[in-house]
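Just curious. Invent one:
>
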Amino acid sequence: MVIMSHPLDTTLGPMAPFVGQLLAELTPLMGEITTPVVDHLCYRAASLPEYLSLKAELARHGVLLVEGMIGGRPIATYRLHQPLCWQALSVPCIELAAPKPGRSHQAGLEHIELVVPSLHELVANHPGLPFKTGNIDDGRNPDVGLMLPSGQIKFHLRPLSEVIDEELRSGAVVPVPTDYYDGL
């Protein structure tokens, strides 16, 4: 197994082992995925000050693709200058999620996202798995999720960077209100 450390590991935690652990937990449930495409991983901040501090740190290690309001809180996605590497995988992006207002969150690596050809086939081929399918028919970026002991794996039809490009072109990104961080 080839695991490469990443400069952000000291800030966010060991990212490659997180990816490897989730894929290892997935294998007995779904079988070996021969060429998984992990397009990004997500880190959830516990507070807005932590989110802002991590945004500054991630800006030193990548290019901001977008920051917008999703689910009532800001989420920023960066294309890393040095992709995260685990075995033969190269994970190009990281998503940073602010906490949802009024809810407490534990800071840490939260999920990875895999690109698959069909969400409906994925769910149908594994009827015994407790997939979260609430967004399976979303018009813009459908997904299904699967909670595992070490975190969540979400499955999408295309890489997040493609979805972001489309959202930017179409004006679908909801900007973070200019006063959102006031009072911190």
